[in-house]
UniProtKB/TrEMBL annotation:
GO terms for biological process: lipid metabolic process. The lineage of its organism: Eukaryota, Viridiplantae, Streptophyta, Embryophyta, Marchantiophyta. InterPro entries: AB_hydrolase_fold (IPR029058), Fungal_lipase-type (IPR002921). Signal peptide: none annotated. This is Fungal lipase-type domain-containing protein. It comes from Marchantia polymorpha. Residues 167-239 form the Fungal lipase-type domain. SUPFAM superfamilies: alpha/beta-Hydrolases. Transmembrane segments: none annotated. Gene3D superfamilies: alpha/beta hydrolase. It comes from the Eukaryota.
């Protein structure tokens, strides 16, 4: 009985993941026909809290699109220009020391182009835009580096990947130069997983970076559940008001099956104090999960 429901849970998760990949592709096309510039035509000062949140999400989403275009080698549509940001080179943001120390990871990043560092233009009309944003793009099915990263998510070894290292160095460096951790981090899919990991890690060290993440992979939601159960459950309940509870439990069961197969008591024994630290710091990520 137990293994049947675990199997069913696993089936649901796999099916949902497949549907999510297909839907992403469609949504990407659809969303890109919207012009983000339109949000600046309305008077910012009259917005209520809800509209301000939507505007902020649109701005961050546009920056993620910008990184995708760079990553896919398309002529840049300059999404960031439309939402009043400048794109900076990683070399401009990092110190000489970091450039030396992380040369390998940087070389990898120059090749992959997962990251974009954006600075808000002085004349930006939106009060909702943060001064600095680091945006991370997601996966492409035919890219080998990505497949390896996807596998790494499943094996929960993403921490050691070059993307994670360079992301953490960039966010820290921006924080050091422009006020402690005064950065917003955003990402989609694999980028969301990477961003979540780094933001959580920094939050554990007392550096509260604001993270906004679009469709993090389900495996990541599961691993997040170990330290932010409340936040993940809340997000899922919002998306699946009726099935949320079951769905969450099915995912959690599957996840714990996978996790228990990995002898990793060290990681698990760290989970509880980490949970306490994050709860005390009142850190939690903003997660935007697609209904599909
Ligand atoms: C993130 O951006 C908002 C503006 O949208 C800003 O108020 C906030 O301070 C930023 N977060 C951090 C940690 O700097």
């Amino acid at each position: 009985m137990g293994s049947m429901s675990a199997l069913l849970g696993g089936g649901i998760v796999c099916w949902a993941y497949g549907a999510y990949v297909i839907n992403n592709h469609y949504k990407e096309k659809e969303a890109k026909t919207n012009d983000p510039e339109q949000i600046f035509t309305a008077n910012d000062k009259q917005d209520d809290a809800r509209v301000r949140k939507i505007k902020k999400r649109l701005i961050l989403g546009s920056l993620v699109y910008g990184v995708y275009d760079m990553f896919e080698g398309k002529p840049p549509i300059e999404w960031w220009t439309k939402v009043h940001y400048d794109l900076l080179e990683l070399d401009e943001v990092l110190t000489e020391d970091d450039l030396d120390r992380y040369a390998t990871e940087l070389q990898d990043e120059h090749k992959n182009k997962y990251l974009g560092v954006f600075r808000r233009k002085k004349e930006s009309p939106s009060a909702e835009a943060s001064d600095w944003v680091v945006a991370i793009s997601g996966t492409e099915p035919l890219n080998w580096a990505d497949l390896q990263n996807d596998l790494a998510i499943i094996l929960e070894t993403l921490n050691s990947k070059n993307l994670i290292t360079i992301l953490e160095v960039v966010v820290r460096s921006l924080g050091a130069q422009h006020g402690f951790c005064s950065v917003n981090v955003t990402g989609h899919s694999l980028g969301a997983a990477a961003g979540l990991l780094v933001c959580r890690r920094l939050a554990l060290k007392g550096c509260l970076v604001e993270g906004h993440f679009f469709n993090p992979p389900f495996t990541t939601l599961e691993s997040l559940a170990h330290t932010c159960t409340h936040a993940v459950k809340h997000a899922l309940m919002r998306v699946f008001p009726a099935e949320g509870e079951n769905f969450f439990d099915a995912g959690k069961r599957l996840g714990s099956k996978v996790l228990h197969a990995v002898p990793d008591t060290d990681r698990r024994s760290k989970a509880l104090p980490e949970f306490k630290t994050l709860a005390e710091a009142k850190w939690s990520p903003y997660l935007y999960v697609n209904k599909k």
